[in-house]
Design goal:
This protein is of the alpha+beta class. Helices cover about 35% and strands about 20% of the residues. It contains 14 helices and 17 strands. Strand 10 and strand 11 form a beta hairpin. Helix 4 packs across helix 5 and helix 11 packs antiparallel against helix 14. The radius of gyration is 21 Å and the shape is globular. About 35% of the residues are buried.
């Protein structure tokens, strides 16, 4: 953590020089779109020279949430299930550019890269929190590019281009600095789940209620918002966006989740079990935590697609290793609200807080998601079709 804090200070110094006017003659600062983003409305970027960090556009409500949780020892249990927050920066350097050309010419990103070469590069560079930014052939930069090149570019590139076209705020460089959950993974597989079934925005109440009723949120109090999963057979990522998530219903939900946990025609049941165990811990924490109301938050499930299912069995020897390779985190706290507890009993959830709206719909979503994952453990995957362009996947399952 000391290394990462030092790297954060260097990144902040780069983005916020003491004399901004002196940056006119300095090196141009290039930030890249974060290729492993699968959902959300924010355009997340990162510096290829600081692989530990993601830069997310600053939002005051979210900043307050992260700061409150980080600075209060009463929230230690919750801290392990949210991304680590390093702080915020208001970039003042004059030569900052966000590079999205990587997604404009997707044909250049389809060439194959040796898996062994990519693995060696990532493992070698995983422990390096920062580099000399003038080294253009740095392993960190190569690692970032190669991870992108292996991916299926058509759908993901189209989605990212549209996101940056509609949402990217030019000339606005206020960022929250968060940990990159994927940085120690070879092939990150990510599932973005929106939790809850309560409309909260009075200006968009009607449209929000329509979305909830028309999606899985109205039935299970959660819905799928985005996904990428590494396909070992084709060495590509299967990508799905929020519009796919809105079409998922009770009939095809199990099939879609199978696509996230499947490898080589089999469900990674040890991995599913590991996520269920962690979801139960999160459920317990939220049941006790009465001082926060998590409106419209999301849950990220992340694992390394390179690992076989046998390695997802947790024991004393590999617990620390699995913490790096399997992660589940709450994200998106712009609309979260906080009631300052007056007693330790309130922190521990031992008093009823009628003043604060509850998290019943969030907890309901967690419980339902656990039940559906448990059902996957009783399924046997006997057929899988993986078209070349990865536009669809078909499964046959039986109990």
């Amino acid at each position: 953590m000391k290394q990462e804090q030092a790297a954060f200070n260097e990144l902040r110094a780069l983005l916020c020089p003491e004399k901004p006017e002196s940056s006119d003659d300095g090196e141009q600062i290039i930030l890249k779109a974060f290729y492993h983003q699968v959902g959300g409305h924010s355009c997340i970027v990162k510096s290829p020279y600081f692989p530990a960090f993601l830069l997310k556009p600053y939002k005051n409500g979210e900043h307050k949430f992260y700061s409150t949780v980080k600075e209060n020892s009463n929230f230690k249990e919750l801290q392990q299930f949210i991304p680590y927050y390093y702080g915020s920066v208001e970039a003042t350097a004059k030569k900052i550019e966000v590079d999205t050309k990587e997604f404009e010419e997707t044909d250049q990103r389809t060439r194959e890269v040796s898996q062994d070469q990519c693995t060696q590069t990532l493992v070698r560079s995983a422990s390096l929190p920062c580099l000399d930014r003038r080294n253009r052939n740095s392993p960190i930069e190569s690692c970032y590019d190669k991870t992108s090149q292996i991916s299926n570019p058509e759908e993901k590139g189209k989605w990212l281009r549209q996101l940056f076209k509609n949402r990217f705020r030019k000339n606005s460089f206020s960022y929250m600095i968060l940990e990159d959950l994927t940085r120690e993974m070879i092939f990150p597989c990510i599932l973005d789940i929106k939790l809850g079934s309560t409309a909260f925005n009075s200006a968009k109440l009607e449209s929000q209620m329509q979305k909830i009723k028309a999606s899985m949120s109205g039935l299970y109090s959660f819905r799928l918002c985005g996904m990428q999963v590494y396909q070992a057979r084709t060495r590509n990522y299967l990508f799905r966006d929020k519009y796919w998530g809105r079409k998922v219903n009770a009939e095809n939900l199990s099939d879609e989740l199978c696509s996230f946990f499947c490898c080589g025609g089999k469900i990674k049941k040890n991995l599913v079990n590991l996520f269920i165990q962690r979801l139960k811990v999160i459920e317990t924490i939220l049941c006790k935590l009465k001082c926060f109301c998590f409106r419209s938050c999301s849950l990220l499930l992340v694992y390394d697609g390179l690992m076989p299912d046998e390695e997802f069995v947790c024991n004393a020897k590999n617990e620390a290793f699995l913490e790096k390779k399997v992660k589940i985190r709450f994200i998106d706290f712009e609309n979260a609200s906080f009631h300052e507890p007056s007693t330790e009993e309130e922190f521990a959830g031992e008093e009823n807080l009628d003043k604060q709206p509850g998290n019943d719909d969030i907890i309901t979503g967690l419980v339902n998601f656990q039940k559906i994952l448990s059902q996957l453990l009783s399924l046997s995957l006997i057929h899988i079709s993986e078209p070349t362009r990865l536009l669809s996947i078909s499964y046959a399952v039986f109990c």
